[in-house]
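Quick sanity check, Hexose transporter 1:
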Amino acid sequence: MNLIFLWSWMITIGIGMFQMGYCNVMFSSFLDILHNQHDVKANSYIKNENDFNSVITTAVPVGAALGAFTGGIIASIGRREGIILINFLLCVGTAITMILDFFALLIGRLIVGYSVGVLSVLTPLFISEVSPVELSGPLGTLSQIMCTVGIMIGYFMGYLAPLKLTPEGKENPAILSTNSWRYVFIIPGIIAITHSLLLLFVFKYDTPKYYRQVGNEVMARKVELEIDPDIHQKNNLPKKEVEKEEKVPVSKHCSPLFRWALVIGCLLAAFQQLTGINVVIFYSNKVFVSGSVPGRQTYNDLVEARTGTMIVGIVNWAATMVTIPLLGRLGRKVLLLIGHTGMLVSLVALGICAVFNDNMLIILFTVTFIAFFEIGVGSVLFLYAAEIMTEIGISMALVVCWSLTILISLITPRMILCLGQKGLYFMFAGINIVGWLFILFFVKESKGKSKEELKMLYSSEVEYKYEMKEMSDEKHPKDY
C-alpha cells in the first residue's frame, strides 16, 4: 500500500476541517477590537456590545447550517470539484470580512460559515470513501484532528489581539487602531487558495465511489491502484462487487435500508452538541474569568482568560491524538461510552465546584471535560456518520449539528442568567445521561466491517438487496 501518497492526499483533503475549526474560533479573541472599530453605535439594529457579539458570533454556524444542508447536493457534482468550488467562495467571504463595516463583516462571516458547512460534509465523506478498511479508524479521525488543529491555531492567533486593558487597568488605545484582526481573518483565504492548487495540480483524483456513481470504472480502478498497486490481486474482487455504484435518491432515505442509519446519525450529532461543549468553545473566555465581577475584569483576569482558552485548544488537539490508537483497539461504541461517562463525571464535579466557587477546580474539570469529549463523540461522530450514512445522510446530520450549535450559542447567556453556572453544569450532566443510554442501547459497533457490511449495519441483507435492485431498476428501466 502506498501509505505516503494516501496520507498526504487525505491530510490535504482534511484541510477543509482545519478551516472549520479555525473559522469557528478566530473571532473570539477580537470581539472587543471589532466592537470598538465598527461603529455599531450608529447602527439602529445593534444596540450594545452583547448584541454585536451575539450576531457576529452566530453568523458562522448559521451559514454552516445552510452549507451542511446543501453539502450533499454539492457532493453530487464531485467531491474534489465541490471542495475547489467552495474554496473559491471561502476566498470571497474572507475578502468581504476585511472591509471595516458591520454589514460587510456579517455577510462575510455568513459566506465563510456556508463554506465551512459544506466542507464539513465533503471532507469526512471524501476520506471515508477513499480509506481502506484496515485504516478506516486512523484516517477517519483525521477530520476531527484537523478541526482541533484549526481550533488550536485560531486560539494561538488570538495572541495578536491587544487586550482591552493595560497592565495599569486603563482602557488600551491600541484596540481602536490595530489591524491585527485582518491578518488573522485573511488566513482562511490564503489556505483555501493553497488547498485548491494542491487539488488541481497534485492530488487530481476524486473518490473511487464517485467515479463508479458516474460510470467511470477506469478512473475508479486507477485511483485504487494508486493507493494500493496490489489491491485487485489481494482481494480478487468478482465483477459484481466492483460494478457501478448507485447514487441514493433523497426519497430513499426514509426506506427501511437507510432510515435507521439516518436517525442514529442525526441523534448522535444532536447529542454531540447537547453535551455542553459549545458553552466551553464559544464562551471559553467567560468560563475562565467566571469568578470576577462582570464588567469589572482586571488586566490579570483577561490574561488568565486568554491562557485558559489556549489550554482548551491544546487539550482539544491532544485528546484527539490519543483517540487514534484507541479506535483500533476499543472500537467506536466503547469510545463513545467512555467519553460520555467522563463528561458526565466532569460536569457533576464542575457543578459541585461552582457551588463552592472554586475556580481552580473548575478550570481543571473543564479541561477534563474537553478531553473526554474529544476521546468520545468529538472524534467519533464524523468517522461514524461517514461509515453508516450516504452523502445526503451526512448532510442531514450536520444540519442538526450546526442548528443546535446556533441555538445553544444564542440561549447560553440567558441560561447562565436563569440557571447560574452550577445549574448549567447539572443540566448538561442530565443530558449526558440520556446520551449515554442512547449509545448503549441503540448505537452499533462498526469497527473492522467492510463497506458492504456497514451498509447493512442498521438493516437486513434482504432489505439491502431489495433497495439496491429497486434503485437500479428505476435508473435503468427494462424495455419489454
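Posting the structure with no commentary besides this: The chain has 21 helices and no strands.
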